[in-house]
Specification:
mainly alpha, elongated, Substrate Binding Domain Of Dnak, Chain:A, Domain 2, 82% helix
Length: 152
């Protein structure tokens, strides 16, 4: 994967997320009784949504670090960057499904768990040299654990 592919993929993901946030802002506000009911349902996957969100955040930081290394001619984290490029859209979608209390969350969590475990393995290879890799690996492990709990 070259730097341009990673940047284009990241830009597309950011545009998608911004569009969804704008769409959510345009939805009508609920009265208090509807809000209470909605909160109760959303808590079902709250821990999973938070873990997936953290996975996206640490993955983006790690990907940026990989790009910086590439720009200096160091391709040692190429497999790490490749795994992150797959992780980011999976965890972003998982976070959205979990936050919406979607009926697809459990099934999607099974796939996300596998992607998180694979990314964790790649990032662990660099965790002693790069804090961003360690943070991403830890976040992937936490997300995979939440996926296991939900998918069971």
């Amino acid at each position: 994967m070259d730097r341009r592919q990673l940047l284009v993929g990241g830009g597309a993901l950011a545009a998608s997320l911004l569009a969804q946030l704008a769409s959510a802002d345009e939805q009508p506000k609920m009265d208090h009784s509807q809000h209470m009911h909605h909160d109760h349902g959303a808590r079902k996957f709250a821990a999973l949504a938070a873990a997936a969100e953290d996975c996206v955040k640490t993955g983006q930081i790690c990907a940026d670090h990989c790009l910086e290394m590439f720009s200096q001619g160091d391709n040692s984290t190429a497999a790490c960057a490749r795994s992150i490029s797959q992780l980011l859209p999976i965890c972003a979608t998982l976070q959205q499904l979990a936050a919406q209390n979607s009926k697809y969350t459990k099934a999607y969590a099974r796939l996300a768990q596998e992607v998180c475990r694979d990314c964790e393995k790649e990032c662990r290879k660099h965790e002693k040299e790069h804090q961003s890799c360690r943070d991403c690996a830890d976040s992937c492990a936490a997300c995979a654990k939440e996926c296991d709990a939900v998918a069971a």
